[in-house]
Amino acid sequence: MHTATAPRYTLLADIGGTNTRVALAQGSTLVPASVARFPNKGRAALEEILTEYMVAERVSNLAGVCVAVAGPVSVDGQDARMTNLDWTIRASALQATTGAAHVSILNDLQAQGHALSGLAPEALRMVLPGAPAPKGAAQLVVGIGTGFNAAPVHHAPQGYVVVPASECGHITLPLRSELHIEIKRYFERKHRFASVEHACAGRGLERIYAFVTGQEDATVDGKEILSLMQSEDRDALKAAEIFTTLLGGVLGDLALTHLPFGGIYLIGGAARAIEPWLERFNFQQAFKDKGSFSDYMERFSIHVVEDDYAALAGCANYLAAHKLGLL
């Protein structure tokens, strides 16, 4: 139980399309025993989860709140709309629910970016080694879960970290073959637009499997497709190969856009699930296939982040670095 008297706690939440993770922090340090996970299904709003959490933890007198949202945040930072969930997050509602004097709303990839400096070595799994990182080099976090997004991480003097928001999951899907054009047309019939997220998020594997099997709708979920892959099912393996090559191409484009010599960090359940298959399906070749810049791509290391609660730590780091709600 946490009565949040002295020292005062901050309340943190990482809101995905499927689950919400909640925790308390003292300064930039998470309270390990406070971490909890809630399914979003059946909930009308985030405030329901936070109220339940605060009652269970007997927490009050909060110093501040920071939430990481899988969706675009308004320019003034006062509200956000979830991309894959019918929720709107408003700072005013969070303040009313928690009683905290200060509320910050971040895009979830921004929170992940603020977490990178504190990740333990065992929380990272190497995908591609890359070259040694120069001091202060930019990094890139890429979320591959229910949705897809990425954000650059820039290190300013005195240890200050800047993580600009992004919605690059909704840019146009790059096409390199006749097969990709067929997939584009398939997505356009259903969504009127073929985006990176349609193909490269966790649900993208489901959509591509439906395309491969001649179905108009995705009726087989990602876990079942992974099981079929383990059984060497031809259609599942074909879908995974298409998914992997598209993902490699997209990450290569993002690498050349942001030049993250400090590394690319993949987060999310779909990233962790597909990682063991990347080498088999020529992910490295797809990532580096950039014409005269193919050799240049050797500079970028790629890691999978194993820590499922990194965004919570990022929220704590953000509040501490900006000295928000910590007085």
Automatic annotation (TrEMBL):
The keyword Transferase applies. InterPro entries: ATPase_NBD, Bacterial_glucokinase, Glucokinase. The keyword Protein biosynthesis does not apply. Keywords: Kinase, Transferase. It comes from the Bacteria. Belongs to the bacterial glucokinase family. This is ROK family protein.
